[in-house]
Records
---
Amino acid sequence: MKQRKVPLRKCVACQEMMPKKQLIRVVKTPEDEVLIDLTGKKSGRGAYLCGKEACFRLAQKNRSLDRALKSQVKPEIYEQLAQDFIKAEDEFLAARDSAEDE
Ligand SMILES: [Zn+2]
């Protein structure tokens, strides 16, 4: 039996290796903006987080995103990301569930 290779990425908060599809990508653009990238196609340095608010909060607490993105992420950016993250979480989970049969 052949096993299908799934690209794995590490969540910067809990350090768990997960299939890329199950992670939310946070990207620092060349313009130095830090945003959530649901398409996974934005250019820039990326960091991955499980699609869970808890993991985002952990990253916020430990400043894991700062390290992963190699730049200082301002508290207000974290707050903005938190808002977006909660919104994205629903979309993300819905998309993931509907993509499961592919
Ligand atoms: Zn995680």
---
Amino acid sequence: MEIYLETERLVLRRFTADDADLLIELDSDPAVMRYLSGGEATAPEVVRDRHLPYIIAGYEKHPGLGLFAAHERDGGAFVGWFHLRPEPDGPLDEAELGYRLRQASWGKGYATEGSQALLQKGFAELGLCAIWAATMAMNSGSRRVMEKLSMSLTGTLPTPDDMMTVEGAEHGGVRYEITKERWEQR
Ligand SMILES: CC(C)(COP(=O)(O)OP(=O)(O)OC[C@H]1O[C@@H](n2cnc3c(N)ncnc32)[C@H](O)[C@@H]1OP(=O)(O)O)[C@@H](O)C(=O)NCCC(=O)NCCS
């Protein structure tokens, strides 16, 4: 297992080709997918043939960045994933933070804990100067995580065409950001 980082309660590691079932199970919970697909599960073949190969290829393309599996240090239960990665054609010193956790892991502070460690690594070790995150305006839990990370609301976003049927689509999305300077001063 290739450990990416450790926090007080979590271990983040690279995904491997054997991890499709973890991702399929995560994306099959309507509550997890509520503000992503409107609750619809991701098709297993899409996870196997597109998502997982893309995640694994990303480790080579952008060393140090990517999407990582999170497990509890105590017992090893799969918690979900976090990502820190540049936009496809964006600057390499900026990255997007993201997270998707199993419902059983919600409400324990894990999203905040994993994200804090990623921001620290991104700014202190990976040379990032800004980290941003986006979510549906209605996704209060995700917004709260961004606020607890000292990220600032920097703008609103239109709902992507393929998310127009998601609950709250009419309210659009929000973008939060934090600079290295702000992170160090928080
Ligand atoms: C959003 C998500 C990552 C939060 O994970 P988590 O580990 O429960 O988050 P944390 O415990 O670190 O913090 C959540 C905060 O939001 C608050 N919160 C959670 N749900 C909320 C809601 N519906 N309304 C308002 N606040 C909410 C919590 O009370 C907590 O704040 P607090 O510490 O001030 O009490 C998790 O629910 C998830 O994976 N959801 C499904 C996928 C998703 O929506 N991902 C984000 C897409 S951009």
